Write a sequence for this structure.
């Protein structure tokens, strides 16, 4: 069992139609047909949306995505039209709202991996492959791959795992031409972002992109290169053979699996509320990621 501990009621805003409440974002449509994406402070872990929010998280995700969209604009156009808060919306939507083009979304998560971690590590240990791609012997947790790889996944509903699939399966789902575009663009974006992160003392281990079509133009959508969709590791602490320190939900995951939480992640009961110390440390880690990547002080 998984999903929301308690699913929030959508905010009603005049002139906006509520479309969807996801793990982190709420999605609306305005009268012009544009999409309104609002990033909440919700936190998810182990397929649950937790009962405790992380202050400022939604603003960090939104502002970091906007920064990355600019860094990548020559490689792929993006879906953002403006950051204007719709009339009648709550004041706290400021800084966490994107007005976006309505795209024909591609039903594939586009994952690029430069290092071995997460589900890729699990598969490698089992079969020496990731998404069917053969990898050399001798790799371990956190190893750099010989070259970045494109490892697609199928999108899952809230509470379900995205499922890694082979490139051939992705091509069957979306067509060979589109699959080729996805792979080429994903690896180009990853390469640019990896180099930018490296200049700032960070390793971009892997990341996930979502794309849609604006007419015939492949367009970058959703969020990009945030701690929610990417593994960033401090380069000076990188040590293959163990789990790496990470700019993401590490404190939350560690606490939920500790005796202090008294929670069985394999059971049916939802996770407990987070203690204040874990909330504060997680907020600080998200803000640190923003500041290190952008060079801009958070305020």
């Amino acid at each position: 069992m998984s999903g929301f501990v308690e699913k929030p009621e959508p905010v009603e805003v005049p002139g906006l139609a509520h479309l969807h409440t996801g793990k982190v974002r709420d999605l609306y449509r305005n009268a012009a047909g544009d999409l309104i994406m609002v990033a909440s402070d919700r936190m998810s872990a182990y397929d649950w949306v937790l009962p405790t929010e992380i202050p400022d998280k939604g603003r960090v995700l939104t502002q970091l995505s906007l920064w990355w969209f600019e860094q990548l604009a020559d490689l792929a156009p993006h879906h953002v039209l403006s950051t204007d808060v719709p009339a009648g919306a709550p004041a706290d939507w400021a800084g966490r709202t994107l007005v976006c083009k309505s795209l024909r979304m591609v039903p594939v998560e586009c994952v690029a991996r430069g290092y071995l971690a997460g589900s890729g590590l699990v598969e490698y240990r089992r079969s020496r492959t990731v998404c069917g791609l053969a990898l050399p012997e001798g790799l371990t947790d956190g190893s750099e791959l010989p070259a970045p790889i494109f490892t697609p996944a199928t999108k899952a509903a809230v509470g379900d795992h995205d499922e890694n699939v082979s490139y051939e399966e992705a091509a069957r789902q979306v067509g060979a031409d589109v699959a080729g575009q996805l792979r080429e663009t994903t690896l180009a974006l990853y390469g640019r972002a990896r180099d930018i992160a490296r200049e700032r003392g960070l390793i971009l281990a892997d990341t996930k992109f979502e794309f849609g079509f604006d007419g015939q133009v492949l367009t970058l959508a959703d969020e990009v290169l945030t701690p929610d969709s990417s593994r960033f590791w401090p380069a000076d602490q990188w040590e293959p053979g163990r789990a790496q320190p990470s700019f993401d939900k590490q404190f939350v995951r560690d606490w939920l699996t500790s005796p202090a939480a008294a929670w069985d992640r394999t059971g049916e009961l939802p996770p407990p509320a987070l203690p204040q110390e874990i909330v504060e440390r997680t907020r600080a880690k998200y803000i640190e990621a923003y500041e290190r990547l952008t060079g801009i002080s958070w305020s």
